[in-house]
Amino acid sequence: MNKINAVFIKFILLFFMIGTFSSCEEFFNPDQDITVTEDQLYSDWYEYRSAILGLYSLQQGLVEQLVVLGELRGDLLTVTSNADADLMEIYNFNVSKANKYASPENFFKLIAATNRFITIIENEKPDVTNKEKEINNYDRLYGEALCMRAWAYFNAARIYGKVPFIDQRLSTIEDIEEYINSPGTYTDSLVIHYSIDGYRNDTIPEPVVVTLEKKYFDLERVIRYFTDELETKVKAVGVNHYIENDDNTWEVTIWSRWSYHTLLGQMYLTLGDITQSALHFETVVNNGTNNDQFQLTSAFAGNYWGNIFDYIDSREHIFTLWFNKANQQQNGLQKLFEPWAPNEYMLKPTRECVHKWETQWRGAIISYNYDDLEETETINPGIPSDFYRGYGTSYLYVKNLDYIDGNEYLQMLEHKMNEEDRSVETIMENVDTIVYKYSVGRDRFDQDPNFIIYRAASVNLYLGEIYTWLNFRDASGNITSNTLKALKIINDGSYYDIATNRTQLGVRGRVGLPGFEIQNIVFLFDPFTNEVIGWRNLSGNLVAKQQRLEDQIMDERARELAFEGERFYDLMRVAKRRNDPSYLASRVSKKYPAGQRDYIYNLLMNEENWYIHYFE
To answer: What is residue 94's three-state secondary structure?
Structure first.
């Protein structure tokens, strides 16, 4: 282990002079030799493995940026009076190049490092590019690096709309910055030598200087380029270190075949290719390695749902960036969300966000009358609130820096249900709402919540979204909808009983909520009293039924995945699918004060304003 850490220090200090990533005390020894030349790097397997760990450290550096840009621009998160100037710029969709959350620097660091690693491993271990050769651990490391690079480009393109395509020969942040700042043509500062086999510099005595034309890839081109690269170049992904470290969660803290398929599914879904997306997501949920892995079973049902954020578990987590204060691996998420010193409470849930949990009802009794719709009435409204995912796990109410306890919370909901506004105001006076998801199981000084990039519930929700729209042709040539399959995945997991013979609970069933339905007559209910207030007739209108289910799935994604960095891109994806920018604009603008709401709505009606135009 000491050798691994020493080499890793050399790698990090040589290229980026960035933070730390090790679990060994030796890593922090300032007296270690940190002088290394390129011919000394990668001389054995452990050095390759150490280098790939350095790439994960760079991924860690993107966490706050991903959360802020993926959530604050959406409808679930807003600013507090403590928000700094950078967060206010993001909130107001008026972002300067000096904004720390808008800077592409950390993306470029990761791209530069992956470029360098990929080039070296291709040169020194050329069999990684030959799919006819037997798979070994170098192939798996190569797959990890290719996934990481594709992920970096994909996320950058979702943020900026277009990104400079960095030639693989540019492998330092200085080269990349010079390339980006060049007027249009860039002369590579790297000297390239060639030989008979393409790897050694013993055949051409004079250097060949490469001139690069600066080019930008938009989101669609990024997806097409990197899905093709992953599909054609990757032989295997992820080295399983379980034998050495006895840690069975290791596989989900690195890029693996499962996160590889999830990334491809996510990119294809963003592109609008739902058929290809479904194939990759199905590979994950139907994996045959472990009947519990990535299955929505009782493992995280009910009160256990919050454990998803307390520790890493390969039954739910597909890919998670691990942090640990003891090893000086920390992030600023608690600082952004918690009101207790030394944290700064700069961001909080929106009112609409909290309502998505508090207006869920279980145990209701409704008397339906389809012959006389006006006679349909609520007999018993049931019990409000998404107890397991909402209060106490995803968010909290705080008064005078102390939690509102569960009894007060239930009293408030009961008063709201009975329309006793004065009693609600008494309880909620001087109350702050906080994001709690990144504080579960942590002390206020820890600053090390893990960051989940992919998990099982998200993949199931993606599949529900896909099956809402994915049609198939039967043997007779008739086109049939998969919408009922979407319901079975979301509601109770019964689709998997048939497809894979695995008993599951579904996304809503796992937390004890009633399932969604597809109906001709859709009754409308007051969100706070659950009384019937009207209806819609969707008879004969399949598209309207599908859009309604899609709306419900998007709300379910909000309840399940709030503050995990994907909300703005969920809204973007649906708005593009419907060719309706108002889908995003109306939802996001609702969180703004009355005097600003129309301005934000009109701004977001232009798709160009969904991106941060850093490279203009």
So the answer is: coil
pLDDT of amino acid 611: 98
Rounded to an integer, what distance in angstroms lies between the CA atom of residue 540 and that of residue 530? 27
Residue 571 lies in a domain: no
Q: If you average pLDDT over residues 519-548, what whole number do you get?
A: 95
What would the pLDDT profile of 391-420 be if each residue is shown by its tens digit?
999 999 999 999 999 899 999 999 999 999
Half-sphere exposure of 204 (CA within 13 A, CB side): 14
- Neighbouring C-beta atoms of residue 208, cutoff 10 Å: 10
Q: Residue 345 belongs to what domain range?
A: 333-435
Q: What's the chain's average pLDDT?
A: 87
Q: 3-state class of 218 per DSSP?
A: strand
pTM, two decimals, is 0.89
Say if residue 225 is in the same domain as residue 348.
Answer: no
Residue 310 lies inside a defined structural domain of this protein:
no
* Residue 168: strand, helix, or coil: coil
| Bridge partners, 473 (sequence order) | 479
Query: In 53-161, which ranges are E strands?
Result: 77-79
d(CA 206, CA 49): 34
In a domain, 588, yes or no: no
Q: What are phi and psi of 230, to 5 degrees?
A: -65, -40
Q: Which residues pair with 378 in a beta bridge?
A: 366
Angle at 272 between CA 267 and CA 277, to 5 degrees: 50
44: domain CATH number is 1.25.40
Of the CA atoms within 13 Å of residue 332, those in its CB half-sphere come to: 13
Q: Domain ends where: 435, 450, 469?
A: 435
**Final residue of a structural domain among 245, 270, 288:** 245
Number of H helices, E strands in the chain: 22, 19
In whole angstroms, what is the distance from residue 32 CA to residue 29 CA? 6
Rounded Cα distance, 148 and 457, in Å: 22
CB 570 within 8 A of CB 557: yes
Output the pLDDT for position 286: 87
